[in-house]
Amino acid sequence: MSPRRLLLVGALGVAAVMFVALVFVPILFGASQFLFGGGIGGGGGCVNVAGAGAQPAAAADAKSVPVDYLKLYQEAGRKYGIPWNVLAGVGKVETDHGRSTMPGVSSGENYAGAGGPMQFLDATFRAFAVDGDKDGKKDRYDPADAIPTAAAYLKHNGAPERMRTAIFQYNHSWDYVDLVLDWAKRYVGGDFKPVQANGINCEDNELPANVGALVKTIIAFAMAQRGKPYVFGANGPDAYDCSSLIQAAYRQVGLNLPRTTFEQWPFGVKIAKGKEQPGDLVFFNSGPGTSADNPGHVGMVIGGGKMIVASCSACVPAIGVKTYKKPNWIGVTRPLARPDFKKKVSELAARQ
Asked: Which Pfam family, giving just one, matches this sequence (predicted)?
């Protein structure tokens, strides 16, 4: 092949790769962000999830649901915090509340291997099975077991705070999600809006009443980064890793922390677990090259057992509020207790 032809083939190959990247990469990331409820940039608005598990009153259309099924939907809804009408929507779409005569409803399996009134694959049912009627058996063909199992499965997949995501995981079709929610609305008279949180919950914005202005400023900066991506080695402002987020937050008040988690761990004054306060740093034995005395991950306490943290690139949200009371939690430090930081804070206060 001539050099000119080789050059032409190479150029076409590069163009093809670029086309695939331009077309499919945005689609891939866009779909995943919609699926998991993430993808908001710049710490966008929070979603109020306080009423996500509310149990709405039944409307006229709910009378079409068999009485025994309606009772099971409502009981499971209350127990698992899933709106009962969503469970009823799943039951309606799957098997018309067990009344379908199709294969795999009362016995056997359908063409996809699903069985029972809530149409579980055997492996999925075994993983989440609930003995709803306490008869010592977990039977996917018994609505008393299948319906609470469906509630447990939806909850495992993010319901009620991320309802559309959870329903999609039940049956991987957005048309299915819309159909289930259409029935859920009908059963309560149309006045029903499922919650689809983006990982930024409004209740996390409330800090303990005794938090001082300095710590509020530090935490406020970190909280404003919620929804941005995690990128290892990034220093902001568009992306952060765990330690750069902490460093940037403290920098807002004129305090300079070391850059890496390994350096930040010995930098602050050690605080006993249970004595942590907002603004303290919590460290974890997580990541390559880490150990119980050499943690590789860090977050910042905001109160109530929660931290603001840049978790990982695949986490949803990548930067958000999570609990720090986990098995790999190593310890706590308080940078503001350092003598040089105390002096610096006093100097800054005197200038104001």
From this structure: NLPC_P60
| Domain presence at residue 228 | yes
Element of type H or E holding 13: helix 3-36
What are the pLDDT digits (tens) for 294-335?
999 999 999 999 999 999 998 878 999 999 999 999 999 999
Are 155 and 210 part of one and the same domain?
Answer: no
Please state the pTM of the whole predicted model: 0.63
Residues 346 and 229 in one domain: yes
Q: Rounded distance, CA 142 to CA 277, Å?
A: 49
Cβ–Cβ under 8 Å, residues 39 and 196: no
Per residue in 131-157, is it b (16+ CB within 10 Å) or e — as a string?
ebeeeeebbbbbbbbbbbbbbbbbbeb
User: Domain residues for 78?
Assistant: 60-186
Domain boundary among 121, 155, 186: 186
127-176 pLDDT, tens digit per residue, is 999 999 999 999 999 999 999 999 999 999 989 999 999 999 999 999 99
Integer Cα distance of 153 and 124 in angstroms: 9
pLDDT digits (tens, 9 = 90+) for 48-100: 888 999 999 999 999 999 999 999 999 999 999 999 999 999 999 999 999 99
Would you state the torsion angle of the CA atoms of residues 282, 47, 232, 246, taken in this order, to the nearest 10 degrees?
Answer: -40
Residues 304, 342 within the same domain: yes
**Residue 195: how many CA atoms within 13 Å on its side-chain side?**
23
Instruction: Check whether residue 274 and residue 336 sit in a common domain.
Output: yes
Claim to verify: residue 133 and residue 225 sit in the same structural domain: no
